[in-house]
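Quick one, probably user error.
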């Protein structure tokens, strides 16, 4: 899979380079074995340069995940309908190499975002879905209802497909089968 890093030097910032170094470390050895010192070494800067931006790995990981997931969400076709965008985003997140690596080695890092609080990327996703629902309602293509509640319900349903979808795939059910069902689920929830 193609990396989602910000590799265009004209658009890159030092922060992007530091986050890229952190991403590389996590892909190589996992979050638990990644240190700010190793991130600094890979980025070719002093430890203090990294410590000025992030006091600990938790803060750095939060910024990295926000950048990564925002890139995945914004990579979709902005003109696609909401069903396509949600299904495409679910698949892209499940295929994202950083997401896969975190789930493989350090899945507990994701628990706070499932059990305790929303993260910045979840808020970004909610904003996109809310706006799309409101636009669809105005055009008569989506049922009436509170766009905030509807968006949050879709995100909660999508969590299952993102985090647990792989547990439902076997010889009888494929990822494509689940994507088709997700499409039907979203369509029926939003139908006018």
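Nope, works fine. Designed sequence:
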């Amino acid at each position: 899979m193609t990396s989602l890093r910000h590799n265009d030097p004209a658009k890159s910032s030092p922060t992007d380079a530091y986050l890229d170094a952190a991403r590389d470390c996590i892909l190589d050895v996992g979050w638990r074995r990644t240190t700010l010192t190793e991130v600094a070494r890979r980025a070719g800067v002093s430890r203090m340069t990294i410590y000025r931006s992030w006091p600990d790995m938790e803060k750095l990981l939060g910024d990295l995940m926000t950048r990564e997931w925002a890139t995945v969400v914004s990579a979709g076709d902005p003109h696609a309908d909401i069903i396509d965008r949600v299904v495409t985003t679910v698949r892209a997140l499940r295929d994202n190499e950083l997401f896969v690596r975190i789930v493989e080695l350090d899945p507990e890092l994701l628990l706070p975002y499932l059990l305790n609080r929303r993260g910045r990327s979840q808020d970004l996703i909610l904003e996109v879905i809310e706006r799309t629902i409101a636009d669809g309602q105005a055009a008569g293509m989506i049922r009436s209802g509170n766009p905030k509640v509807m968006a949050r319900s879709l995100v909660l349903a999508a969590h299952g497909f993102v985090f647990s979808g792989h547990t439902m795939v076997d010889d009888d059910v494929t990822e494509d089968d689940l994507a088709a069902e997700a499409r039907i689920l979203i369509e029926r929830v939003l139908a006018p």
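Residues 77-190 form a domain with the Tetracycline Repressor; domain 2 fold (CATH 1.10.357).
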